[in-house]
Amino acid sequence: MRILVLGGTGYLGRHVAVRLRALPGARILAADRSSTDGFGVDLAADPVERLAKTLAAAAPDAVVNCAGVTGGDPVTLAEVNARGPAVLCAALREAAPTARLVHLGSAAEYGPGVPGTPVTESAPACPVTLYGATKLAGTVAITASALDAVVLRVGNPVGPGAPVASLPGRLASLLRTAGPNPEAVLRLGDLSAHRDFVDVRDVARAVVLAVTTPGPLPPVLNIGGGTAVAVGELAEGLARRAGFSGRWEENADGSARSARVSWQCSDISAAARALGWRPAHTLDDALTALWSATTEAMP
Q1: Do 231 and 167 touch, CB atoms closer than 8 A?
Q2: Active site residues
Q3: What is the reported pLDDT for 38?
Q4: Which InterPro entries does this entry report, sorted A to Z (predicted)?
Q5: Residue 83: inside a domain
Q6: Which domain holds residue 211?
Q7: Which pTM does this prediction carry?
Q8: In a domain, 243, yes or no
């Protein structure tokens, strides 16, 4: 089975590629802007014709699109998160119309949730950030493509290798720098919001199942932990693992893509039915793995 992975050098993409390589008989083809194996792809800029030629040369049985950006200027967000999936679908229809497409979307597409009510895939998508809006545009392009495609709407991924652009990655970096100093002060945003955290390794396993499960799949599937957890609980759990004895200060300034969303939780029952997928790792597992990876990276 030939599987083309787009964005395989990013946080989610690296974990996805590792998991896919463990599939018996699978040949994983990496494609991104820095690819050296002949499959250079830039979804933000490549015309459909060029991308179609690349896809024809790769002749994939499945394509996994992990390419995406979580921040940046509006043009970059639109080019990567919205234009990218649209161009990819157009090129697939021309060059590999029978290949299965698995695209990583985001729970940010839903916007604010109702406390106590996990959101299902049929709920109206009402993003309140540019990030969520551009991810939703990418989802619409894929679900309207008539391809054999599924969008996995991923919650807040946590685990080894979390980038500093994410809250878990930033916290790990700050705790690593602070060390055991009891005088250390960490300045963080509002920690009262609730999020649906999911281990990045469980996300990768969901992708593998989406690639290999036979027959048509629902157009959108939620991939999350299925539980709303206060961000402060995540911070405290990571601080315990770091042996942090200082203190932190909260302020009202959060990330732009989390603004105005105080509660978010995904109903993951559809993924259980369609893929046989459920989270195998707890948040504690994810935090332990994240901190272990952080300490291993220390000089």
Answers
A1: yes
A2: 131
A3: 57
A4: Epimerase_deHydtase, Lipid_A_modif_metabolic_enz, NAD(P)-bd_dom_sf
A5: yes
A6: 2-157+198-225
A7: 0.93
A8: no
